[in-house]
Specification:
By secondary structure, this protein is of the alpha+beta class. The chain has helices at about 5, 10, 15-20, 80-95, 175, 250-259, and strands spanning about 60-65, 70, 95-105, 110-120, 125-130, 135-140, 140-145, 150-155, 180-185, 190-195, 205-210, 215-220, 225-235. The termini are far apart.
Length: about 260
């Protein structure tokens, strides 16, 4: 097929006899016949087909010599996955202690709030003040949950909870292989941690501010898929915290001592 048939398909589909035939028009537009007009001389018209210009396509990703890995150009200032993981680990390791406020939404959508304290390694305290007092305390080995209103108490090993994933002393997320995913959305990095040992079910999705890698909160997803969301605020880092905040003590022991 020639380039003319591509550019002018309609003109090539009309026969010379059809082009020479008179065209019927409305009566008001018909001109009087001219008998003395000389015959028109044919005029040679030369047509030069347009030159097809090459279409410029984006350069595809290419592989480095001797490897099968693709090399892709990142946007200016963008960090790769390993750099983000390293910065996250450093930010958590450098924060030895922290205190602040938190808000939480449980899997049923019920909100609660209170104060929290972290003393790395392993120690954390959540004091729920709303809707009712609840205390969750880790002494580095055991996590206790006390509900005074219900006179309920329970204790489980820290290693069996996702909390231990970011309460360690020296955090090397690449070495222990606990990072399952890294995402960047709306000015935050989201780092998903899982326990490779299998002791703790579920996963934690930590949210860090993109500008300074400050921990903003997390989503804790248990083995059944139920999700609890926690947001942090009013944080003070590397402050002095009382050791008594992180003492795990069964309330029944106190009652036994009074008998």
């Amino acid at each position: 097929m020639s380039i003319l048939s591509v550019l002018f398909p309609l003109a090539l589909s009309v026969s010379p006899q059809a082009l020479a035939a008179p065209v019927a028009v409305g009566p008001a537009l018909v001109a009087p016949p001219v008998t003395s007009a000389p015959a028109a001389k044919p005029v040679d018209v030369k047509f030069t087909p347009p030159v097809a210009r090459p279409v410029t396509k984006p350069a595809p990703a290419v592989a480095q010599p001797g490897t099968s890995e693709l090399v892709r150009i990142q946007a200016p200032g963008a960090m790769d996955r390993n750099t983000i993981i390293d910065r996250v680990a450093k930010a958590m390791t450098d924060t030895r202690t922290v205190q602040g406020r938190f808000t939480q939404v449980d899997p049923a959508g019920s909100p609660s709030s209170g104060a929290f304290y972290i003393n790395r390694p392993g120690k954390v305290r959540f004091e729920y003040t709303s809707p009712e007092p609840i205390f969750i305390v880790s002494d580095g080995t055991t996590v206790s949950i006390e509900e005074p209103k219900r006179q309920a108490y329970d204790a489980i090993p820290l290693a069996s909870t996702p909390l231990h994933l970011f309460l360690r002393s020296n955090i090397d997320l690449k070495k222990d292989g606990s990072v399952a995913d890294v995402e960047t959305t709306n000015g935050s990095y989201f780092v998903t941690l899982v326990d490779k040992t299998g002791e703790a079910e579920g996963k934690m999705v930590l949210q860090f501010r993109q500008t300074d890698f400050e921990l903003l909160g997390w989503r804790q997803i248990d083995g059944s898929g139920a999700e609890t969301r926690v947001q942090l605020a009013d944080m003070k880092k590397n402050v002095s915290l009382k050791p008594s905040l992180f003492v795990v003590k069964d309330p029944s022991d106190s009652r036994d001592e009074r008998r």
